[in-house]
Amino acid sequence: MELFNFDIESMINLGAAAGLCALIGLEREFHGQPAGTRTHMILGLGAALAAILSIAFSKEFSPPNIPSDPARIVAQVVSGVGFLGAGAILRFGVTVKGLTTASSLWTCAIIGIACGAGYYYLALITTILVLSALTVIDKFQKFFIPGHSTREISLTVRDRKGLVNDLRENLTKQNISIISLSAKIGANETLNLDMIVRVPNDVGMDSLINIVNTLEDMESVSVQ
Q1: What is the layout of strands, in order, in the sheet containing 148-158?
Q2: How does DSSP classify residue 31?
Q3: Cβ-contact 74, 7 below 8 angstroms
Q4: How far apart are CA 152 and CA 2, in angstroms?
Q5: pLDDT tens digits for 166-200?
Q6: What is the Cβ-side half-sphere exposure of residue 51, based on CA atoms within 13 angstroms?
Q7: How many CB atoms lie within 10 A of CB 193?
Q8: For residues 103 and 124, what is the distance between their CA atoms, to the nearest angstrom?
């Protein structure tokens, strides 16, 4: 059967998928992401092979009078990659990392499918756009839009009138915004405050602790 005769076109399809996805993976690995060149490359190869086999199965095993859907295997690849992408998403306290890498993995699967089906130009254009989003647009965004990070702060301070307002004013002066705030009365007339704040990237950990420590009667500070 022609099904298992991997001709030159199939080899080109697989090679194109491996090369294009490797470029995206190389960019991710350069930035120290958990999914790098090999992961993206293997994912693209697997998706391309799934597309090739899906089309071949549809031609070889479908009765002449009953057309088969050549996208049945491919559809399972698209949904299955979601589990792989979830493994690249990590949570550090209130901060979530890896969403961009998970998106690049999912897109590499689509690029692999496009190569497997012979849509080389569409796959190439998509790869260029993805690399542009990861490099050019990232630098553009950092230059024109000030970056922020999310921090979790836990304070223990002696309770007094106007404490929360003073804390809010100190943070606002440094362009630090409070996303959420919860308070609990502790022992010995103390107040335990748990906050999630949005901090500009130019404000380091030491600076943030010093800003919070300007409050009177501060007993302990914890920043994550």
Answers
A1: 177-185, 190-200, 148-158, 218-223
A2: T
A3: no
A4: 60
A5: 778 878 877 777 777 777 877 777 778 787 878 77
A6: 23
A7: 19
A8: 17
Read off the tokens for 188.
């010995």
| pLDDT at residue 1 tops 50 | no
For residue 91, give both structure tokens. Answer: 């949570």
Tell me how far apart the alpha carbons of residues 222 and 92 are, in angstroms, rounded to a whole number.
15
- Strands (E) in the chain, as ranges, are 90-92, 95-97, 148-158, 177-185, 190-200, 218-223
Angle, helices 37-61 vs 8-30, to 10°: value is 150
Q: What is the pLDDT of residues 111-162, one digit of tens each?
A: 999 999 899 999 999 999 999 888 887 777 666 766 777 777 787 878 777 7
| Residue 109 and residue 82 in contact, taking contact as beta carbons nearer than 8 Å | no
Question: How many angstroms separate the Cα of 204 from the Cα of each of 39, 78, 197?
Answer: 34, 40, 13
Is residue 57 within 8 A of residue 4, CB to CB? The reply is no
Q: How far apart are CA 186 and CA 13, in angstroms?
A: 65
Place of tokens 């899906």: 54
Answering whether pTM is above 0.70, one says no
Distance between alpha carbon 74 and the CA centroid of its chain, in Å? 23
Residue among 104, 101, 108 at smallest CA distance from 32:
101
Question: Could you tell me the two tokens for 19?
Answer: 């090369």
Residue with tokens 């589990």: 83
